[in-house]
Amino acid sequence: MRPSFQPRLINDPFSDPGLYIPFLYEKRALLFDFGQLHSLSTRDLLKITHVFVTHTHMDHFIGFDTLLRVFLGREKELHIFGPSGFFAHVEGKLAGYTWNLVNEYQTNFTLRVTEVYPEETLTRIYVCKDRFEPQRQQIIEPFAGILWKEPSFYVEGAILDHRIPCLGLSLVENFYVNIIKEGLKELGLPVGPWLNRFKKALYEKKDPGDEFHVTWERGGTVIEERTFVLGELANKIAAISPGRKVTYITDVIGSPENYEKVINLANKADYLFIEAAFLDRDKDIAQKKYHLTAREAGELARMSDVKHYTLFHFSPRYTDMAEEIEKEAREAAKKEESEDTRQKTVDGKD
């Protein structure tokens, strides 16, 4: 059974951070961080609907211009989330260009930008045809850990310490609808866009007694249609399995406070993508720069009880030493929890 999303880092571990998360059988993707996006095709970029930016250091935010350029002139709405002060950085980017020609576009491109604070989020809307001037009305909503929510998944965020606020992120799938191919064949049903509607109906917990229309399409035109009872169809072609969880952690100091937040956010994740900027022998440098060591990354993976973890964001000082970084994290991930580690999490002492 295949997962409904397949996350992948956009660059090698020594290059700009970023996690691209495309959805299976959908022309849709999420993006965690805005590093260099040159490895992604235009087709990949156009699938992106939501971007979650951990912080606006250049290596995490330089890709904003690339995505903006691709989206211009298209009928798109792009949601972007970032920590406190994010509006100023987005508006600074937008102010760097001249927009006197955008009223000639026949399409309408809109940015919905959200700043994240400990107890609330603020959202501003920027419309291309208005030269990206922010609309006067600002949307204020309470924040209790969930940044975005849909019937099939939600995105959690935690504000971590990188000497500046930095977001830790988790994509959590509520459950996964697996399509049984044998069931489709038995009923003589095609694979097609209707399956996305079918899954959506299950995610939204529609009444099992509702009618559901299976369609055959050619060139976007419906050429045949059959009607089923939703619950009966689900019993024959769908198998429900637990959802997947993907966590993304980068640019944080290994403090007791960050440890607690990361462990809560990444708890039992299927995939943890976590920075390992320095080797433990250079821990003093890591702490000065507010980054994790490979040992701390492995330790956090173990303490969070994740199934798989992937390291990234290596310091260039370790070029040709990636294996050593991986080894240090691997050893920490396998170790039994030491008394010192227990003290760090229980007593809050480092």
What's the CATH H-level homologous superfamily of the largest domain? Ribonuclease Z/Hydroxyacylglutathione hydrolase-like
Number of helices: 12
In total, the number of strands is 18
Low-confidence stretches: 337-350
Termini separation (Å)? 43 Å
Order of helices and strands: EEEHEHHEHEEEEEEEHHEEHEEHEHHEHH
Helix content: 25-40%
Gyration radius over CA? 22 Å
Work out the strand percent: 25-35%
* Name given to the CATH architecture of the largest domain: 4-Layer Sandwich
The CATH topology of the largest domain turns out to be: Metallo-beta-lactamase, Chain A
CATH class of the largest domain: Alpha Beta
User: How would you state the average pLDDT, rounded?
Assistant: 92
Provide the domain count. 2
Descriptive notes:
- The longest helix has 13 residues, at 322-334.
- Helix content is 29%, strand content 30%.
- With 350 residues, it is α/β, with parallel strands linked by helices.
- It folds into two domains: 1-71 and 145-174 and 243-350, Metallo-beta-lactamase, Chain A, CATH 3.60.15; 176-242.
- Strand 13 (211-218) and strand 14 (221-229) form a beta hairpin.
- An eight-stranded mixed sheet has the order 1-2-3-4-5-6-7-8. Strands 9-10-11-16-17-18 form a six-stranded mixed sheet. It has a two-stranded antiparallel sheet with strand order 12-15.
- Helix 10 (294-303) packs parallel to helix 11.
Any descriptors?
Metallo-beta-lactamase, Chain A, 350 residues, 30% strand, globular, alpha/beta, 12 helices
